[in-house]
Recover the amino acids of this structure.
């Protein structure tokens, strides 16, 4: 799946798609609550009200740049809390190459935040050692985000994620710690969207008068547009995350900005419109 925003192209490369396995992340999104939201069906939920979700990377090609936004789960990673995420042996790199994005051709890796499903392919296992998957890239991590996760010890499940997918990048001098509003190139910059994690950022694309936003996880699923108050169990600060959703959705509503969801299944992208007191995604 591919979108064009002026001189910029965004390509989606899927690692995993699931139906019905996301209640652990959005517990309020019960089938009974989802079925009345008719616009979610069939792209974002099935007729039984089970959510459809995706873990994918977004390849952003801007003039002179090849950027991968978020690097999914990765292969061979251990000590992951979700069984299907542990010790994966998927075809992501082959799929990436088949789409024309051999890993050596990527010049920038951008992580909207440092959760497990956004950093996994930062590294790959070679002869028992975690090495950078994208050897010719600079890896951009949010400064606030990195400083938080590199120091915290309370959430034990984050420790192996940082150890195998983030720290090896720093050890090899490939990381750059950036601010929330970092400009990557004339067409692509970050914008703060905190709450889900301490330093979470989304990605704004502007080219030839056209605009798009890559969400990151300020919304995991379009159902949170109908119910901005629905928090993710992974939210660092649920109140701040809801405020971010309401602010960004309010800013985008009715605007010609293509919103590309980092976990949205099916068509993945659309335009935000107001729907009563809430919002919906027009695809």
């Amino acid at each position: 799946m591919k979108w064009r925003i002026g001189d910029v192209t965004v390509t989606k490369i899927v690692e995993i798609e699931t139906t019905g396995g996301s209640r652990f992340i959005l517990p309020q999104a019960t089938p009974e609550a989802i079925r009345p939201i008719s616009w979610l069906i069939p792209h974002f939920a099935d007729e039984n009200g089970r959510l459809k979700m995706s873990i994918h990377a977004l390849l952003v090609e801007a003039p002179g740049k090849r950027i991968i936004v978020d690097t999914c789960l990765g292969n061979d990673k251990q000590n992951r809390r979700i069984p299907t995420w542990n010790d994966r042996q998927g075809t992501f790199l082959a799929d990436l190459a088949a789409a024309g994005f051999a890993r050596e051709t990527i010049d920038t890796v951008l992580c909207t935040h440092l959760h497990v499903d956004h950093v996994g392919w930062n590294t790959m296992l070679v002869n028992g050692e975690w090495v950078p998957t994208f050897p010719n890239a600079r890896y951009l991590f949010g400064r606030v985000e990195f400083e938080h996760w590199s120091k915290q010890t309370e959430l034990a499940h984050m420790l192996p994620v940082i150890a195998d997918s983030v720290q090896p990048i720093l050890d090899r001098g490939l990381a750059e710690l950036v601010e929330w509003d970092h400009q990557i190139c004339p067409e692509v910059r970050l914008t703060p969207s905190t709450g889900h994690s301490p330093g979470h950022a989304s990605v704004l694309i502007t080219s030839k008068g056209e605009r798009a936003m890559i969400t990151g996880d300020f919304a995991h699923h379009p159902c949170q547009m109908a119910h901005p108050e629905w928090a993710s169990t992974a939210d660092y600060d649920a109140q701040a995350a809801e405020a971010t959703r309401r602010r960004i959705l309010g800013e985008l509503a009715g605007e010609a900005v293509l919103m590309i969801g980092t976990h949205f299944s099916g068509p993945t992208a659309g335009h935000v419109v107001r729907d009563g007191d809430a919002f919906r995604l027009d695809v």
